[in-house]
Write a structure and sequence with these properties.
It contains eight helices and six strands, in the order H-H-E-E-H-H-E-H-E-H-E-E-H-H. With 222 residues, it is α/β, with parallel strands linked by helices. Strands 1-3-2-4-6-5 form a six-stranded mixed β-sheet, with helices on both faces. A hairpin with a 5-residue loop joins strand 5 and strand 6. The chain is globular, with a radius of gyration of 16 Å.
């Protein structure tokens, strides 16, 4: 199994009827501001540097972000925050992620989501998470250099722990929290760069930059 073969399996997945129906409905109806665009409307594979030491795990694609552009954290406000921070901290060659093929390159990092389809109300069901997590497990098996996992939000934190067979006692999620994972990896928590967090000031640019600066340090020393 190669990353390219796994990508095709992800893109063609139809395991979760609720998610299939929703992602395709959004792609048909579209948001007015994107009415002229052709939506992706399928599951979103992970992407980045296959030799990277950092694995960033998000929640799920945004209905009019990744579900539209075909690339996770691309074309939405969360992505605006994430990639601006990755640019400032040396992981990206440009601060914007607008569309697939926009010249963005990620260094030393792979980016994926716990759930690969856009879910209604941005809330996947536990069964949908369980259907989807094996894809992340297969990605990790094909990425030989991963030393650090970054969980964007509590949902991703729990998913990352599940990917490693669980850690007992279960470590509590928090912004900047760190815990050791089986196999010698380190898990780092980060508030999700959603508008709910960035608009309210729960997550600021310096807070986000501090996490990825720390992640870079850990990746180089583990």
């Amino acid at each position: 199994m190669s990353l390219a073969e796994l990508e095709q399996r992800v893109v063609n997945c139809r395991l979760c009827p609720r998610l299939v129906e929703w992602r395709e409905q959004v792609a048909r109806e579209k948001r007015a501001s994107f009415a002229h665009e052709e939506y992706w409307g399928r599951p979103i594979p992970g992407w980045g540097d296959p030799n990277g030491r950092v694995f960033v795990l998000g929640l799920a694609p945004a209905a009019h972000g990744g579900n539209r552009t075909g690339r996770i954290f691309t074309g939405d406000r969360s992505g605006d925050w994430l990639f601006a921070s990755l640019y400032r901290t040396g992981f990206a060659n440009q601060p914007e992620s607008i569309r697939s093929g926009d010249g963005l390159e990620i260094r030393d990092m792979w980016i994926a989501a716990a759930v690969r389809c856009a879910p209604p109300a941005n809330k996947p069901l536990p069964s949908e998470r369980d259907n989807c997590l094996p894809y992340a497990a297969e990605e990790l098996a094909l990425l030989p250099n991963i030393k650090v996992m970054v969980a964007l939000g509590a949902f991703a934190w729990d998913a990352a722990l599940r990917l490693h067979g669980g850690v007992k006692p279960k470590p509590k999620f928090g912004h900047g929290a760190e815990t050791a994972l089986p196999g010698g990896r380190t898990l780092v928590g980060c508030f999700h760069p959603s508008q709910q967090n960035t608009f309210t000031g729960k997550l600021t640019e310096p807070m986000l930059d501090a996490v990825f600066t720390r992640v870079g340090e850990v990746a180089r020393t583990v």
